[in-house]
Amino acid sequence: MIASVKGTRDLLPPETRVWNRVEAAAREVFALYGFDEIRTPALEATELFVRSVGESTDIVHKEMYNFTDRGGRSLTLRPENTAGVARAYVEHALAQAGRPWKLYYIGQQFRYERPQKGRYREFRQIGAEVLGPADAATDAELLVMLFDFLGRLGFTGLSVSLNSVGTEATRPAYVEAIRSFFSSNEKTLGDDDRRRLAENPLRVLDSKDPAVQDLVASENFPRMVDLLPTLDPAADAHHRELKALLVASKVPFKENPLLVRGLDYYTRTVFEVTAAGLGAQDAILGGGRYDKLVADLGGPRTPGIGFAIGEDRLVDILPEKFRKEAIEGARRVAVIPLERADVGESMTLAESLRKDGILVDLVTAAKGPGHGLKVAKKTGAALAILLGQEEREKGIVNVKDLARRTQESLPRLGLAAALRARL
Ligand code: HAM
Fold it and tell me: Is the pTM of this model over 0.90?
């Protein structure tokens, strides 16, 4: 037997019904807010992620699926989708349209991480990006949309962790403050964190080392939001306006001055939503502003903001009501021909019912009616129609309710309406 690759998984029915419902809800809600779908390739040039996500991040440093293709190009299976969206924006000169672009995507991402609950090497994200506007209202509306979506899935009690990581203007001073904080504590740092401190001190805030986490959480650790008012009053005003708009829009949030997110492209707003019930991998989504990314990729300076939801994690903690409705929602009818001679008529009947919007599963190749009913039950049909010579001649069908174990004869005329009343 050849097993699936470590860290990847097959999504099987009926679970795929739940995934489809979640994705349909995302499409529906995002469209209400003026978003359109973008589909970018799963394969990108390695350089794209080095330049956007950042060389010193864990993702680029140790989690990417890189390989050299037969033409000698260095390619990477995308670890995230924001970089691909920004690349496409530049490549297709979308800026020239002179309008904001509101884009969403649903798709696989790949990271070479140690697999555990909620963490896979192939996983799926539902994400959205807004390219163009830089105002706080854009940030607020994105979060309003996100909570609208989560609310429609039945989530309650979720809250956003919110922070501002400042801008290019404030970064050098913040980085300096972090360096000087650690200058007296450098011995506490392991190899990984020492490398982070040298290459990109902000990444020390992502450290998984408990001793370092304690230091970062301590009172004297510098916080960007405290530096903002003096270093960058405009970024500070943006942050304050966003918070006011979130309060007005009733989006629940908590400030988390230590949130920096593990990707280098962020400027100003960053946010995350965590949920109980997920264990160690408790972030169901993350996002933020990236006002320099498009320019860094060679495009015209274009601010952007977005989020990506980890769909695997989202589905894992989906409210039971939504899951149940997704699985049981579409009630089906099985049509079972009694003899081979009844197959043609059964197909015709099945087609006519489908035209009336009824989900019909034609059960052929059954070893007799008893077996046919068993198959119908196992595939989850609610009703089964038995069709034989007698029924054909009389213009009726025998309908069995598989849960209630009742049977009745119904005329072929008006059958769809009669079935719908019983489904
Ligand atoms: P991220 O925080 O790296 O951000 O990933 C977003 C979400 O993807 C995480 O919160 C998590 O739910 C899910 N995720 C990440 N890694 C895994 C994994 N190995 N297995 C399962 N789920 C995972 C980004 O990717 C940014 N592109 C988000 C963004 C969009 N920022 C601006 N626009």
Answer: yes
